[in-house]
């Protein structure tokens, strides 16, 4: 709370200090952004949350520790340090044509800020204040786009700033090296600084005189919180249980709820779901009795998620439904939508797709009220995926295209790439190969711009497949080989299999049987290494084909029989693929006899 305390020490009116912590805070700020700007509020954005809003005295601990955020199973929505969509929508407004000044005490402290700066490009100017040792001369350097020079040694910070500039080519960007401690002293009101007079009293004497000695329960509570936050679950559990044993009925109920909640999650992390359920039921019961509906929503949601985890889906849906009904009473749209999405998750897992689509419709009505365009696009994407699985391709295509429009409007390149890829897959299924190729190429261009190597490898492979389907085998091979190089570097096993297979097939159809055989054999070696039975069957089958075309019938028979054996091991002994393989084996045997 150092920033809030600094504002208070400077004599700032506390009514103007506004920490933004919870999802609700972010959404409310976004909805009234222009009004808030006119009011001159001091907005403090807690990117990683906070256990408490010390201005309003609101306890947000249970929200932080108790809630598993379900932002949706749109797999490519976020990477590790990209911020949640509800924050991103607000930051789009916040950063628009603004000067951004960053106080950076160390490179490591900016690990989560740098990806944000790479995402947004609406700044007017960025000034990066880089902390250096006292006595170092102040230097100002303009950051410009530079070509990568392998012989030019650059610091990690230089590389990051260069990457940010590439994402913000039209933004003035400066790095200032200076001692931040001295800089802050120079610009703030001296009355707000701590006294520089020596502290002569004995430290422990001063503590005894000025700090109230905590009760036993408080000692256990403090220890529990520290251990829990550092992930030392055994110690957190021990101190938490002793805290619960030592408190009386009059003890602060909020603190009791926090500890019960934490112990519930410790049990959950241990896989002891029955005890976790007991703790969350206890917290929910207390909240119901005290009419603490906001906290009760969290514990009902926790219970739903645990029952979902142990596959007791009817019970999970029952709790999520309770969340929806309770959230309706307080018009809490965020929690309504979150619970609806959890129910959608269950119906998708149980393949009850019509029920899932019904709940998507309910969720969309709430999202329209909230005004979250990105979330709406994610819904469109996921609904389209269901229609794709059901082979209702027209509906799938329309929904993917609706999502594409929103991602373009939001300048969300990351998700746009994924959406274009999905649309490309629809066109491929419809055999509209030119349209599919257009979408995959645009997705590839975005991947190169964002330096997303894994996605780039995927799209190179998909482009290769389209050329293969159009019988452009040489062009297909080039794309497969490029994808293979990246897959080797990143160790993407699935793409290694697929590229070896498709390179072999491309050369097979060009009658380059020796090259095809080499690619299939590499794929087979990889399948043997990873004991992938189905891929072993495919590669043995393809190798058999190469030997057959070279009139090496005994070799062809050997690999065809191994392919059939692997299909049987996989449980596909009666599949159409197995039947075709049996016919192939008979054909090879006839050739050998003749």
What does this structure look like?
A hairpin with a 4-residue loop joins strand 3 (52-53) and strand 4. The longest helix has 18 residues, at 253-270. The strands form three sheets. A four-stranded mixed β-sheet has the order 5-6-8-7. It is globular. Among the domains are: 1-93, no CATH class; 95-193, no CATH class. Mean pLDDT is 85; it is low at 63-82. The protein has helices at 2-9, 23-31, 33-39, 61-66, 85-94, 113-119, 156-167, 180-187, 203-210, 216-229, 233-246, 253-270, 273-290, 293-309, 313-329, 333-349, 353-370, 373-389, 393-409, 413-429, 433-450, 453-469, 473-490, 493-509, 513-529, 533-549, 553-569, 576-593; strands at 17-20, 42-45, 52-53, 58-59, 99-104, 125-131, 139-142, 172-178. It is of the alpha/beta class and 594 residues long. Helices cover 67% and strands 6% of the residues. It starts with a helix and ends with a helix.
Tell me the layout of helices and strands.
Blueprint: H1 2-9, E1 17-20, H2 23-31, H3 33-39, E2 42-45, E3 52-53, E4 58-59, H4 61-66, H5 85-94, E5 99-104, H6 113-119, E6 125-131, E7 139-142, H7 156-167, E8 172-178, H8 180-187, H9 203-210, H10 216-229, H11 233-246, H12 253-270, H13 273-290, H14 293-309, H15 313-329, H16 333-349, H17 353-370, H18 373-389, H19 393-409, H20 413-429, H21 433-450, H22 453-469, H23 473-490, H24 493-509, H25 513-529, H26 533-549, H27 553-569, H28 576-593
Order of strands in the sheet with most strands: 5-6-8-7
Question: Could you give a short account of the major beta sheet?
Answer: 4 strands, mixed
Q: How many strand units?
A: 8
Q: What Rg do the Cα atoms give?
A: 30 Å
Give the % helix. Answer: 55-70%
User: Which residues sit in consecutive blocks of at least 5 with pLDDT less than 50?
Assistant: 63-82
**Strand percentage, roughly?**
5-15%
Q: Tally the helices: what do you get?
A: 28
Report the average pLDDT across residues.
85
What form results from the Cα inertia axes?
globular
Structural class: alpha/beta
Instruction: Give the termini distance in whole angstroms.
Output: 87 Å
């Amino acid at each position: 709370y150092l920033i809030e305390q600094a504002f208070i020490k400077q004599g700032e009116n506390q009514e103007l200090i506004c920490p933004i912590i919870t999802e609700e805070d972010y959404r409310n700020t976004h909805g009234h952004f222009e009004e808030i700007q006119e009011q001159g509020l001091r907005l403090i954005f807690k990117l990683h949350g906070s256990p408490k809003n010390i201005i309003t005295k609101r306890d947000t601990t249970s929200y932080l520790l108790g809630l598993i955020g379900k932002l949706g199973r749109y797999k490519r929505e976020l990477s590790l340090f990209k911020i949640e969509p509800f924050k991103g929508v607000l930051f789009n407004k916040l950063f628009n044509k603004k000067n951004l000044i960053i106080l950076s005490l160390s490179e490591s402290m900016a690990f989560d800020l740098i990806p944000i700066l790479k995402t947004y490009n609406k700044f007017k100017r960025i000034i990066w204040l880089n902390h250096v040792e006292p006595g170092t001369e102040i230097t100002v350097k303009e950051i410009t786009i530079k070509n990568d020079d392998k012989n030019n040694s650059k610091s990690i910070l230089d590389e990051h700033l260069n990457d940010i500039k590439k994402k913000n080519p039209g933004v003035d960007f400066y790095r200032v090296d200076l001692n931040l401690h001295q800089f802050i002293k120079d610009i703030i009101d001296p009355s707000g600084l701590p006294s520089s007079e020596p502290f002569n009293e004995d430290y422990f004497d001063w503590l005894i005189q000025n700090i109230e000695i905590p009760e036993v329960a408080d000692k256990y509570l403090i220890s529990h919180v520290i251990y829990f936050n550092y992930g030392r679950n055994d110690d957190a559990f021990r101190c938490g249980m002793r805290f619960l044993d030592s408190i009386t009925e009059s003890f602060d109920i909020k603190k009791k709820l926090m500890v019960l909640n934490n112990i519930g999650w410790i049990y959950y992390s241990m896989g002891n779901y029955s005890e976790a359920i007991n703790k969350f039921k206890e917290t929910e019961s207390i909240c119901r009795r005290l009419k603490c509906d906001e906290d009760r929503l969290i514990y009902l949601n926790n219970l739903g998620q645990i029952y979902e985890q142990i596959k007791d889906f009817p019970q999970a849906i029952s709790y999520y439904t309770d969340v929806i009904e309770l959230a309706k009473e307080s018009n809490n749209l965020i929690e309504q939508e979150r619970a609806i999405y959890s129910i959608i998750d269950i119906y998708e897992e149980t393949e009850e797709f019509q029920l899932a689509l019904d709940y998507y419709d309910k969720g969309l009505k709430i999202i329209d009220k909230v005004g979250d365009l990105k979330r709406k696009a994610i819904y469109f994407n996921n609904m389209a995926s269901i229609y794709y699985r059901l082979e209702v391709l027209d509906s799938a295509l329309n929904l993917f295209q609706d999502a594409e429009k929103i991602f373009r409007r939001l300048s969300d390149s990351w998700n746009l790439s994924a959406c274009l890829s999905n649309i490309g897959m629809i066109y491929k299924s419809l055999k509209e190969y030119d349209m599919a190729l257009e979408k995959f190429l645009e997705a590839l261009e975005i991947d190169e711009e964002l330096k997303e190597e894994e996605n780039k490898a995927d799209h190179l492979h998909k482009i290769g497949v389209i050329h293969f389907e159009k019988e452009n085998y040489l062009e297909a091979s080039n794309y497969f080989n490029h994808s293979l190089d990246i897959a080797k570097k990143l160790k993407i096993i699935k793409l290694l299999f697929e590229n070896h297979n498709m390179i072999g097939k491309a050369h097979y159809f060009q009658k380059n049987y020796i090259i095809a055989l080499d690619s299939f054999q590499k794929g087979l070696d990889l399948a043997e290494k990873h004991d992938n039975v189905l891929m072993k069957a495919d590669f043995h089958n393809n190798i058999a084909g190469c030997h057959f075309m070279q009139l090496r019938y005994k070799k062809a028979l050997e690999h065809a029989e191994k392919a059939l054996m692997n299909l049987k091991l996989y449980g596909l002994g009666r599949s159409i693929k197995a039947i075709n393989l049996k016919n192939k084996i008979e054909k090879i045997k006839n050739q050998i006899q003749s």
